[in-house]
Amino acid sequence: MATGTGKRPEKAKKTETPLNTEQVKELVALEGELKDLKEQHGIQEKGPLWQRLIQAWYDFKESHTTLNPVKRKTYLWLCLLSVAGVNQFYARHWVKGLIYLALSWTGISIAMGFIDWMIAVPKKPDDNGMILM
Questions:
Q1: For the chain, how many structural domains are there in total?
Q2: 39 lies in which domain range?
Q3: pLDDT tens across 29-80, in order?
């Protein structure tokens, strides 16, 4: 540390030796060999972390989403009781029902119930009056 001069101590400069053409050719050949080995053993390049997380989320949702048949009229009426998550419990979506119940004091569950109602209204019932929810 310099005292009183106000100057910073100079950093030691690095001296880099440039690669000659033989070394560059060797590096290119090694990279090609590495690429061939990765293809041979089925190793894929990883994408960015955010892409892998989004893909993992969609894979999880696709494999864990179940649609249960419910009576359309009953479900639409139970959407009025969405403040307690009754419509989700009726559709056998227990986790969503518990989330609605936990958020019942905030009013968010009422808004989510209205969205559930808007999703259920345009669905055409089958011969038994059932829709998939």
A1: 2
A2: 19-65
A3: 999 999 999 889 988 888 899 998 999 888 888 887 788 899 999 999 999 9
- Residue 65's φ and ψ, nearest 5 degrees, are -90, 125
Give the containing element (helix H, strand E) for 130: strand 130-132
Beta carbons within 8 Å of 46's beta carbon, 6+ residues apart: 52
- Do 32 and 85 lie in one domain? The reply is no
Quick one: 91 and 80 in the same domain?
Answer: yes
Q: Are 71 and 123 in contact (CB under 8 A)?
A: no
Please indicate, yes or no, whether residues 75 and 101 belong to a single structural domain of this protein. Answer: yes
C-alpha 32/C-alpha 48 separation (Å) is 23
Question: Which 3 state secondary structure label does DSSP give 70?
Answer: strand
